[in-house]
Automatic annotation (TrEMBL):
Protein name: NPH3 domain-containing protein
Highest taxon in the source lineage: Eukaryota
GO aspect biological process, one term: protein ubiquitination
Alphabetical keyword list: Coiled coil, Ubl conjugation pathway
Start and end residues of each NPH3 domain: 160-431
PROSITE patterns in alphabetical order: NPH3
Length: 558
């Protein structure tokens, strides 16, 4: 009975020799890989019982034959050689079989690792996936009518049939496979699609106390495997990962990494994405406002500020880290909608509402209607708010950037502070006055006064990019400097005339001096007359009156 095993297994031969002097009927094999099932296959091989080697048992045969030392040293054409030949000639050339072997290796660790079965299968999977993508790319090359070689647009993740196969292996082995694929140059979109598929398979299962720890490990591993390329995975998937990371209490590093990734592509997010439920114990708010605030900070920090360390405006150069004006506009609309949603929460603190509203740069909002709507909802929900807090809220609104409809509503809104209502009425009056003045002037005539022009062009200026706004300000600054230079020159001329008059008076009181004095006085009178004529125009009087109103309004607001 023992002879076939002893002749082919070096391990059993050693055990028998150690107990030759004693009458033993049983030999104990400790930590046999694969257990009784593996030993049964080895015994069948030793006794000549035929069985088929398949991807489902080849890993077991490799491990048990190595443990039992069933090598060529003890018998020709032994089990270990047979299993290795099957791996090399059949398994490693087929991606599906490699995945099956990896799945069987989950219960054979660490023996399968020590024999490099896992690493060889992973290498084969990564190589096959990369080779298939390269072959697919070459098959889509064709010549155009002009004789140029170009690639036909391919469907998303076409040819990535292996994505479904990888979803069955354990997370630690899956991590090694994806890492190898990245090194082999597999497309980031394919990597992202595989991560999405794997996460959906695992995270949609019923959660219990045992599986919670496993799901936490899956989420943290998938986050670490996310491609660095932007848009490699849908932003909705990133938000779903973030919700799970918060709910499962994943590491802070994982959550911060997700928030940074989401912030870099926040312009394609929707309101539903931002509505992250609050999972923390003791949190009274319905939504996780703190997480959204950090995401907005990450988005805004792409804009490095108006000036860099050398005092040069970043708007004069194309900074790859600065969000475009179109991205800012999209995000501002979503944020205003988000503010309107969280404003309905009676437990939301004023400081957090203001923090979300101020998270974006000042030039992000071209129209303040959405912000006004959110503040109006907050005031209706929190009716016991103090007047000082109302003023803090309303300072967020630039009433020059509200539409006529929103302005009409604000003018009759009893929840707003009186100073805000006065501002609304004043800006509407200026807008109307400017419209009336423009209707009576030709195209080359400038607006009546600078304040009215600023009110009417506020929306246009806000719609411009920060770089264009900066260029406009520089042009205005140059014009002001030129005007100041002209005034200084005229003042110098007057001072020279005054010096000459004093010198002439000291020399002589003759008729010639009186005549010269009269001529100079006439010049001064003419200059004074022209200046008084310009200053007495209705537009300048209205500008002075408007300036006094602004000063009184600003003083009352402060």
């Amino acid at each position: 009975m023992q002879f076939p095993l002893v002749s082919r297994s070096g391990q059993i031969r050693k055990l028998v020799e150690e107990h030759r002097d004693s009458d033993i009927s049983r030999v104990e094999l400790m930590n046999l890989p694969g257990g009784a099932e593996s030993f049964e296959l080895a015994a069948k091989f030793c006794y000549g019982i035929n069985f088929e080697i398949t991807p489902l048992n080849v890993a077991q045969l490799c491990c048990v034959s190595d443990y039992l030392e069933m090598t060529e040293e003890f018998s020709k054409d032994n089990l270990h050689l047979r299993a290795e030949q099957y791996l090399e000639s059949i398994v490693y050339k087929n991606l599906e079989m490699c995945v099956e072997v990896l799945q069987q290796c989950e219960n054979l660790l660490p023996h399968a690792n020590e024999l490099n079965i896992v690493s060889r299968c992973i290498d084969a999977v990564a190589s096959k996936a990369s080779a298939e993508q390269i072959a697919l790319s070459f098959s889509r090359l064709e010549y155009s009518s002009s004789g140029r070689l170009h690639t036909i647009r391919q469907a998303k993740c076409e040819g990535d049939w292996w994505i479904e196969d990888l979803s069955v292996i354990r997370i630690d082995l899956y991590q090694r496979v994806i890492t190898a694929m990245k090194c082999r140059g597999v497309r980031p979109e394919s990597i992202g699609a595989s991560l999405v598929n794997y996460a959906q398979k695992v995270l949609t299962k019923k959660v219990d106390l045992v599986s919670t720890g496993h799901q936490k490990l899956v989420v943290e591993t998938i986050i670490s495997l996310l491609p660095v390329e932007r848009l490699a995975v849908p932003i909705s998937f990133l938000f779903e990962l973030l919700r799970n990371a918060v709910m499962l209490d994943c590491t802070i590093a994982c959550r911060l990494d997700l928030e940074r990734r989401i912030g870099s592509q926040l312009d394609i997010a929707t309101l539903d994405d931002l509505l992250i439920p609050s999972f923390r114990h003791g949190c009274e708010t319905l939504f996780d406002v703190d997480t959204v605030y950090r995401i907005l900070v990450n988005f805004s920090q792409q804009d490095d500020g108006e000036y860099d360390m050398d005092g040069v405006s970043i708007f004069e150069s194309d900074s790859p880290h600065s969000p475009s004006q179109s991205a800012l506009l999209k995000v501002s609309k979503v944020v205003d909608d988000y503010l309107a949603e969280i404003a309905l929460d009676v437990n939301l603190k004023l400081s957090k509402f203001i923090a979300i509203a101020e998270a974006l740069p000042a030039h992000a909002r071209t129209i303040h209607d959405g912000l006004y709507r959110a503040i109006d909802i907050y005031l209706k929900t929190h009716k016991g708010i103090l007047d000082a807090d109302k003023k803090r809220l309303c300072k967020l609104i630039d009433f020059q950037k509200v539409s006529q409809e929103a302005g009409a509503h604000a003018a009759l809104n009893e929840l707003l502070p009186l100073q805000s209502v006065v501002q609304v009425l004043y800006f509407e009056q200026l807008r109307l006055r400017n419209a009336l003045c423009c209707s009576h002037t030709d195209g080359n005539h400038k607006p009546v006064h600078h304040q009215s022009w600023r009110i009417s062009s506020g929306a246009l200026s806000a719609a411009m990019s920060p770089r264009d706004n900066y260029a406009s300000l520089r042009r205005e600054n140059r014009e002001l400097k030129l005007e100041l230079t002209r005034l200084r020159m005229r003042l110098n001329d007057l001072e020279k005339e005054h010096v000459c008059m004093k010198r002439d008076m000291a020399k002589s009181h003759s008729h010639k001096f009186m005549s010269s004095f009269s001529n100079k006085i006439a010049k001064l009178r003419f200059f004074r007359h022209s200046s008084s004529r310009g200053s007495s125009s209705p537009s300048r009087q209205s500008y002075r009156a408007d300036s006094k109103v602004i000063e009184r309004t600003c003083a009352s607001i402060e």
